[in-house]
Amino acid sequence: MMSKVLYIKANAKPEGASRTFKISDSFIEAYKESHPDDEVITLDLYKENIGFLSEDDIAHHNVEPGAHRDHPVLKYAYQFLEADKYVFSAPFWNLSFPAILKAYLDYVMVSGITFKYTSQGPVGLCHGKKAIHFVTRGGEYSEPPLSNFEMGDRYLRIILGFLGIQDFKTFAVERIDRSATDTAILVAEKSQEASELAIDF
Q1: CB of 133 within 8 A of CB of 101?
Q2: 152-162 and 99-108 are packed helices; what angle lies between their axes, rounded to 10 degrees?
Q3: Which residues bind FMN (predicted)?
């Protein structure tokens, strides 16, 4: 059965300069080779020129299912709902991820499309899907004490769980900016590791 993959990229660096993208691109290339019948949609948030929601935009965030599918605000939520797998590629910036990714998630979080309110509380509508987050970090934020300051991957995991996506993996490359790190070798090693991971995603 064919799957639809949404490759969500969030980095302002020019083409070829992002170490995060080098690793996640290797994953995507290997995924396409091992899943030739699947559809991969690349969504570069900076090229999409994702902005912050306005007062008028928010007024569209409580809709009847199936309504206004081509609306410039709602189209991202419908696209997200229709995907089966998600690949997020966003570096570690200021203890989180680039703000444009949060802005994009604000477009995705639409009551009546990706989740709904019930008498028992909110319920996600994106069950049975899976996600992976590629992130590069200058230091070591997977272990205490600095893990207490990591708020990007943690937020992404929680917000996707809110939508019903429980199958979430993190592919973190740590200490990439430490003076003792050979960055080129590390990126090459992690790119190979990501390629191997793609086969079973």
Answers
A1: no
A2: 0
A3: 136-139
pTM for the full predicted model: 0.93
Q: Is 51 annotated as a binding residue?
A: no
Torsion of CA 13, 138, 101, 89, to 10 degrees: 80
Query: Is 137 annotated to bind ligand?
Result: yes
Integer Cα distance of 90 and 167 in angstroms = 18
For residue 86, give its domain range.
Answer: 4-198
For the chain, 201 residues long, give each residue's pLDDT as a single digit of tens.
899 999 999 999 887 889 999 999 999 999 999 999 999 999 999 999 999 998 888 877 766 666 677 778 899 999 999 999 999 999 988 999 999 999 999 999 999 899 999 999 999 999 999 999 999 987 787 888 888 888 999 999 999 999 999 999 999 998 887 777 778 898 999 999 999 999 999
Total domains in the chain come to 1
Residue 7 CA to residue 30 CA, distance in Å, equals: 13
Assign residue 47 the CATH number of its domain: 3.40.50.360
Is 136 known to sit in a ligand binding site? yes
